[in-house]
Amino acid sequence: SQSSNTSIVNGKLSSSTSWNIQLMPRRPGKTSIPPIEIGDESTHTIELVVNKQGSSKAASGDDGVVLEAELSRNTAYVTEQVLLTLRVSMAQAARFQLEEPEPDKAIVQQVAEASFQQVRGGRRYQVTEYTFAIFPSEPGELIIKPLKLVAEMMSSRPRSMFDPMLGQSKRVLRRTEPLTLNVIPAPEGISRVDWLPATDVSLTQQWSKDPAQLEVGDSITRTVELRGKGVMASQLPPLFMPKVPGLKMYPDQPVVSDDQSAAGVTGERIERMAIVATRPGQYELPEQQVQWWDVNNNSLETAVLPAVRFEVAGVAAPAEPSDQPSPDEQPTAAPAPQPVPGPAAARPWYSYPLWWGTTGVLL
Length: 363
What we know:
Order of helices and strands: EEEEEEHEEEEEEEEEEEEEEEEEEEEH
Radius of gyration: 39 Å
Largest sheet: 5 strands, antiparallel
Helix content: under 10%
Shape: flat
Distance between the termini: 91 Å
Strand content: over 45%
Number of strands: 26
Structural class: mainly beta
Low-confidence stretches: 55-61, 161-166, 322-337
């Protein structure tokens, strides 16, 4: 910030300009602020010693600001969901800005934010907790770099009764320690296309009406829902559309969405299909299967949607006419179109005697 002041003392006019610059060190160690020159004047060099976080009394949290970061697990499969929790604890009300994680080779989604109070060491803190879901995309070490918190706290001592803020703000800097996630590849024998690590996967279906009451020509809608806990909707595989003779299938566009909570991401894929029976008889829609990897038990599981059997009553619908003519039918040549007389050509202006007569009279 910048401020100017002008005063008259004993008839002598004086003015001054002040610059207030707040500095936040980026790394520990020794550093210096070089001289600042204005005209022929210059400041002195200022030497600083920057301590690591936690090594000084101020950095350990005596200012009433605590920043913590933790992972739900230190080892995970590729594309498996890992939760990162960032916890900001404040002993007094303050404005703060928290840097969000942006690790390389991973997808990050913020899934929850919660506020509550907590007593630590006999001191009450207002805690704000942020939860992020991280999906590593490649095996190897995934490094989550230190995240920065900048808090602006108000001093309890006002500078002046005319100060609208009734105090001077103080900025506090906190950084988390770097976190390392060991990402392992999928087990052998499972292709990357079929790889679906999750905590739970389910397949359910709904019908617009009872399939047992279906008659020839009736339309019925089948809705299949695939849900996976700990996976994004984009990771869920599409369901196959069976081809059953006597049944016409009209699929809609699938609907995909992600539900987010403190437990992470739950992906959902909904596929709807209109079914029309063209002839009576017994029908069976085959079962649907989706294989997935249980990350809690380290086992391969299968979500199954059982086969559906039903009977269609009524009379077979008439066959649709073919677009091609039968062999007995000979195409008849269409008569040649007769020319249509067009409008008479317009006469030129000089062919009208009246025009010549009028022109001569005027001349």
